[in-house]
Amino acid sequence: MARSFDDRLFLSALCVALPAVAIALGLLWLGPYSTLLRISLTIALVGLSIAAAIALRKRISYPIYTLANVLEALREGDYSLRARRSDPRDALGQALQEANLLGERLQEERRGAQEATALLKGVMAEIDVAVFAFDEDRRLRLANRASERLLSRPPDKLIGQPASSLGLEEVLAADPSRPLSARFPGGEGRWGVRHGTLRQEGRPLRLLVLSDLSRPLREEERQAWRRLIRVLGHELNNSLAPIRSLAETLARLFDRQPRPDDWEDDMRRGLGRIANRSASLSRFMNAYSGLARLPPPTLAPLDLERRIERIASLENRLPVEVKGGPPVTLEADGDQFEQLLINLVRNAVDETLAAGNGVVEITWEPSGEAVEIRVLDEGRGLSNPENLFVPFYTTKPEGTGIGLVLCRQIAEGHGGTVELRNRADRGGCEATLRLPLLPAAPAPTG
Predict the structure, then answer these.
(1) CA dist 351 to 300, 344, 361, 378, Å?
(2) Which of 113, 104, 105, 109 is CA-nearest to residue 80?
(3) Which of 184, 237, 422, 434 has the smallest CB count inside 10 Å?
């Protein structure tokens, strides 16, 4: 039968004392002593040996028991228990001191975690964003006050319910990159959807965040209408005011009696100016209508190099150098892609010619799952980059301010981006078009 640590310690102490006791007893019994004295001293030596072994066991075992109690308290989450008389000058005292320091550290960390949790709960309760957390079985485990208001249910009617019964099954599968139009018991509108993951007690939870976009979208819509009306009004006034002035001048000229000898020439020039302003206004309105009627792209495989070479050959005002790159196949709408790149090349040539002389280059290179197409010019560079993609903003006398807006709209319709910035190596501008590549076909098996 296995003995306990205390018993083994007690027996070890007795074994250590046994040789000395045996020698003392041998000298005692072999010496000229009376029998009573021999028995008395024998009992005294054996008793002292046992008492010393018990004292040694107690001195070693009790601090170990104390250490075990402290560690047990830490395991149970009680960080207030401390070991007393922990002398750092010996090994056991150092162990007790380290246990005390561990308890203090864990107590501080718990206090910090409790404060952080309280802060997080306070923020979660007050934010006007619905936050849900679902387990692996798609049952709701966490929800804040905004979630309760959105679903019009108290907490005890929400926690533990499956996503399907809460009307959130489709929301869990929604595309986070696009606003979601949905109706809930607590409101309807357009919602921003965000997904994430977290862990609670070692279990993974799926996070769902719903933010109401209706109000900010309505405000953005009002701001867009104000800008549009301001720009349209400015453009219409710029065209109609001179047309009206010229019409009144021509009417007075026609009513004069007698008419001057060159009245027909004045009439032709005035009508010509009216025709020019009317044509300019018509171009402006047609450009705006084309931007508003841009259809969704019809995606198909597209050989990038061939399309770029064809677009470069269309420009006859200045040679466009195609630097080239590796063979690339895009998934894009051919007509819209050509319109986008034609606009970028035309702007590059316009700026290069305005600067006097230079070169326009086109190059491309794959970057991850996309390709970056760059159009570089040696023009005057960007003087007001924050207004580049503002509709109807233009620095060209005959410009409509639609070209770059149309480029960005086409790029975003393809899941890409278009950016313009000043070149770092020399004067001029660099337009970077980023579009997704056609996924590679799977390798044949067997």
Answers:
(1) 32, 11, 13, 7
(2) 104
(3) 237
CB contact at 8 A, 333 and 297: yes
Sign of CA dihedral 183, 187, 189, 190: negative
Find the radius of gyration of the CA atoms of the chain: 44
Residues 21 and 44 sit within 8 Å (Cβ to Cβ): no
Q: How far apart are CA 258 and CA 270, in angstroms?
A: 19
- The CA-based angle 107-111-115, given to 5 degrees, is 170
pTM of the model: 0.43
Q: Who contacts 51 (Cβ-Cβ below 8 Å, separation ≥6)?
A: none
Peptide bond into 301 cis (omega under 30): no
Six-digit token pair at 25? Answer: 């007893």
Could you tell me which of 92, 94, 70, 66 has the C-alpha nearest to residue 81?
A: 70
Please, which residues bridge with residue 162 across strands? 139
Beta bridge partners of 361: 321, 376
Report d(CA 172, CA 167) in Å as an integer: 10
- Looking at the DSSP assignment, which residues form a beta bridge with residue 330? 302, 437
For residues 213 and 136, the answer to whether their CB atoms sit within 8 Å is no
What CA–CA distance (Å, rounded) separates 328 from 439? 11
pLDDT in tens, the chain (446 residues): 445 656 666 666 667 666 766 777 676 677 676 777 777 777 777 777 777 767 766 666 667 777 778 788 878 778 777 777 666 667 777 777 778 788 888 888 888 877 876 777 777 777 778 888 888 888 888 888 888 888 888 888 888 888 888 888 888 888 887 888 888 888 778 888 888 887 777 788 888 888 887 777 677 767 766 766 666 666 667 667 777 777 788 777 777 777 777 777 777 887 887 887 777 677 666 666 665 566 788 888 888 998 898 888 888 888 889 987 888 888 888 888 888 888 888 888 888 888 877 889 999 998 888 899 999 998 887 766 554 555 544 555 454 456 677 788 888 888 888 888 888 887 888 989 999 887 654 444 43
CA distances from 399 to 206, 211, 239, 388 (A): 50, 39, 14, 13
Residue 442 CA to chain centroid, in angstroms? 31
End-to-end CA distance of the chain: 65
Q: Please give the order of strands across the beta sheet that includes 370-376.
A: 320-324, 360-367, 370-376, 429-436, 417-422
For tokens 């009317």, the residue is: 278
